[in-house]
Structures are given as structure tokens and as C-alpha cells.
Specification:
Elements (H helix, E strand, L loop, with lengths): L5 E4 L4 H13 L6 E4 L4 H10 L3 E4 L4 E4 H11 L14 H14 L1 H4 L3
Parallel strand pairs: 1-2
Antiparallel strand pairs: 1-3, 3-4
């Protein structure tokens, strides 16, 4: 499993940027790259279609969105055992619901 990842965040959203820096730091993802979603046309299109941030495995181009992106970061971290929490029924849908709520309230969350 590739540990080198790219996190694509919305350049216009302060919350998104700060959240990605926080996750990268707290999960010790030193080899992970942060990049604005707007830097690549296909990534930007996917983000708009899915209303989501994106975590990508650069080697395989496999992409993860919403809470699945978070769990992919967990798997790449020094704490991969936490990934098994995502296997508890209802965790992924709950995470996606929380993500969607925050994404749909971007005017407020982006000001952070």
C-alpha cells in the first residue's frame, strides 16, 4: 500500500487548508503532498461533481473522497490500526453525512 499521497483541498477555503495541514501533521504524513484542487482540471471537476476534497495515490491515481479520504490517510499513517474503526457498520455513512453537512455550509466553515 502506497504511503505517498496527495491531498487536494479547496484553495478558497481556509478551513479546508487548515484542516489538511492539521491532519498531515497529527497523522505524521511527512511524505504527503498538499495541493489546491484548482491546480488540476480533472481533480477540480471531480471535486465539483462530488462536492468533496480528494486524497489521491499518485502511483495508481486511485482517488478517495469524503470520509473515505480520511480513512485512506489513517491507513498511510503510523496508526493504521485505527483504520479498522471504519469497518464498524455505519461509520462511513456517518462520516459522509458529517462531511456533507460541513461542505454544504461552506460560507461559514471557510471563514475559519
Amino acid at each position: 500500500m502506497s504511503k505517498k499521497l496527495t491531498i487536494y483541498y479547496d484553495f478558497d477555503c481556509g478551513f479546508c487548508y487548515k484542516g489538511c495541514i492539521f491532519l498531515k501533521s497529527i497523522l505524521s504524513l511527512h511524505d504527503t503532498t498538499l495541493s489546491p484542487i484548482q491546480s488540476e482540471t480533472k481533480i477540480h471537476e471531480t471535486s465539483l461533481k462530488e462536492n468533496s476534497w480528494i486524497v489521491e495515490e499518485p502511483d495508481t491515481k486511485r482517488q478517495f473522497i469524503r470520509s473515505s479520504a480520511f480513512w485512506r490517510l489513517i491507513r498511510a499513517s503510523p496508526f493504521p490500526f485505527l483504520y479498522y474503526i471504519s469497518k464498524i457498520p455505519g461509520v462511513i455513512p456517518l462520516g459522509d453525512s458529517i462531511y456533507t453537512f460541513v461542505a454544504n455550509h461552506r460560507p461559514r466553515t471557510c471563514k475559519v
